Amino acid sequence: KRSTIRDLLKVQNIMHTYLLWCSIGTTSTLNAWGWPPIVSTLCGSAFCLCWILINVSSRQLVINILSGCCDTFFRQIVVVGAHKLNQSKDPLLFAIAPHSNQFIDPMLIIKTFERPIGFLCAAKSMRYKGWSLADIVAYFARVLEAVPVERPQDLAKEGSGRIRIIQTASNIITVQGVDNTTNFSQEAKVGGQVLLASGPNKGAVARIKTIVGDSTIELANSFETQNGEPFLYEDDDDDDKKIHVKQSHETKYKLIPKLDHHDMYQAVYSRLANDGVVGIFPEGGSHDRATLLPFKAGIAIMALGACELYGENLRRRLRIVAVGLNYFSGHQFRSRVYVDYGIPMEIPKELVEAYTNGDRRGASQKLMDTILNAAKAVTVQAPDHKTQEVLYMLRRLYVAQDHKLTLDQKVAVTRGLARAFEGDQDLEQVRDLVNRVAHYNNKLKQYKIHDRRVAFGGADDSVVDQIDAIAILALRVCLLLFYAVALVPGILLASPLLLLAELISRQKAKAAVAGSRVKLTGKDVLGTWKILVGMVFIPILHMIYTSFVYYSYGYKYAVAYFFFFPFISAASILASESAIDIARSIGALYVLIFDRRVGIELRHTRRALKADVRRIAHELGWNDIITKSVSYGHLNEAHSEAFTRALSGADLSTKVYDSMSN
Hints:
This protein is an alpha/beta fold.
């Protein structure tokens, strides 16, 4: 604390203060000479802007802008584990996962971590494209001194002609040109890759071993398909034939060059040796899947390579930290996110020695396994989005009804349930429970009712008493009308921005899916493009509306609008959240008033599911797994035990669970 106070009391070296004097003098002089007030203000502001650019760090300015964007886009940002790392002066290597929100992911790390951090960024994203929204990302990445990484897929070029893949009985795989239309001798390079661009195997890649001629390439390995799916040949469905030679369907293809990443690795080594912080997304590109993609080996090579180059002194200080980004509908405006900084890991000395002595692949793989396990410990893993929804519902059913969890506690419990479910998902009682929970969840969606409204029901065993429901409905309709009157003007003013952001983000998502091997619907790019559109068009709209006020009502009102309307807009965003919550509850109340059977049925279903979830959690040992997950979430042992008791609503003894099951 004392050092912080001393830092605050240090006299800053402020340069070119005469520019501030010129700013005030220009505005006052032009006003005195009868110039239009808006012209004099703009001229004076130009000097002030020059002073800001000279005295304010571009990096800090960008960080403040990105931090403000995160605060505006997200309703709640919860951070765990960052404070201890901020106090450390040691070099850190961040393994950030999942990479599910494109450029928003590094923005959140910059906001939640105080030390300067340099990210590995696709070189494609750092190239200026000329009057494009993507140039904003390129500018920010350059100011933040990101390390450019040239990705092979970004340099892929379409090959001439069409090809087939041939696999012989001796498992030799070759690429054959169709009708002698290919030109492999000129277009392909040994060590590069072949990427299939169409057909059932679209996205599969394989490395080139030998270029036999213009129409033939011998491959060094079999094709790697998306998510490990089997490669499809034309004769795969013919079980009656003993096939000695297999061939694929005709397909378009792209050729990916072999790249040398020596300069990139050296830049990372240098930053770590100088006690810097480097952020890496080991999955590579962003995606919108519910589970982690396979990690690239680059992060292990960087860690071991730096230790090999700079010796034991760096190895003792360097720490690898898994950082989990857990979004709750992260592509939507005013959503929530939980950022979990894991426990720092030291690189084992024996792995560095093995790497130095030539066993680079083996040492890298062992370190990769450790990093992957650490990443799984700070994220919620599910095989697909439907299972993810079931896990969220299992968490609500598992937790005691009168205990409200914080966001970090929700993630810890869901993470524990995901691990427990992964080990027991093939058991019949677990499959039956999951099917019933999914059916209950679908019922809630059908009637547009949230589970918490079912949990807190009325005295007559329905969701709410009928008289109370009518009173609540009337009150909420009145509140909604009040919000509508108050918010409609702001919504109308913001409608051009909302429509434009939605249109552009959807188009970018569609283009991203078309050009990706791993994206499903492109949700990972929606949030990024909404923010980019807002960065550009919010100031433009504000200036347009200010000009309209100036020409309609005069200078005084224009100045007041320019400086104070942003605060009104911020208040409107907060008020709109309450209005949306009220609007969502009206439909449910209407259904429950006129169809009491629905409420009673849902209430009984939830009670039965809650009892079964607790019983199965006790019988299969899920409680211990959840307790360990909570303990990993930066809680001490005593706190974890008390927290788990609160989750179950009782002591975690066999007698209590037996009584609940009875």
